[in-house]
Amino acid sequence: MSKAHPPELKKFMDKKLSIKLNAGRAVTGVLRGFDPFMNLVLDESVEETKDGQRNNIGMVVIRGNSIIMLESLDRI
């Protein structure tokens, strides 16, 4: 049985990311940490609703299984 490798997210640490989640949700924030399951800790997070409203939500933990897409908004 092969061993799972942790996600290669070190280059995204302390960078601003845009993350699309299941159920049409989206969050933008600065990556502060992650684990082998791709659970993320984001700081200075902003939730973007479907109607265009933006809500500041501070520091959040996002479960890896709800992430659809991850995009860096800062230069790597």
- The string of secondary-structure elements, in order, is EEEEE
Question: Share of helix among residues?
Answer: under 10%
Instruction: Give the count of helical stretches.
Output: 0
How many separate structural domains?
A: 1
Helix/strand structural class: mainly beta
Strand content: over 45%
Strand order of the largest sheet: 4-3-2-1-5
Text of the CATH class: Mainly Beta
Low-confidence stretches: none
Largest sheet: 5 strands, antiparallel
Arithmetic mean of pLDDT:
94
CATH architecture: Roll
Shape field? globular
Kindly provide the radius of gyration, computed on alpha-carbon positions and rounded to a whole number of angstroms. 13 Å
Distance between the termini: 34 Å
Which fold name is given in CATH as the topology? SH3 type barrels
Instruction: Give the number of DSSP strands.
Output: 5
Structure characterization notes:
Strand 1 and strand 2 (26-34) form a beta hairpin. The protein starts with 15 loop residues before the first strand and ends with a strand. It is mainly β. It has no helices and five strands.
Short description:
This protein has one domain (10-70): SH3 type barrels.
Core attributes:
single chain, 5-stranded antiparallel beta sheet, 51% strand, SH3 type barrels, RNA binding, mainly beta, Small nuclear ribonucleoprotein G
How is the topology of this model organized?
Blueprint: E1 16-21, E2 26-34, E3 40-48, E4 54-62, E5 67-72
Antiparallel strand pairs: 1-2, 1-5, 2-3, 3-4
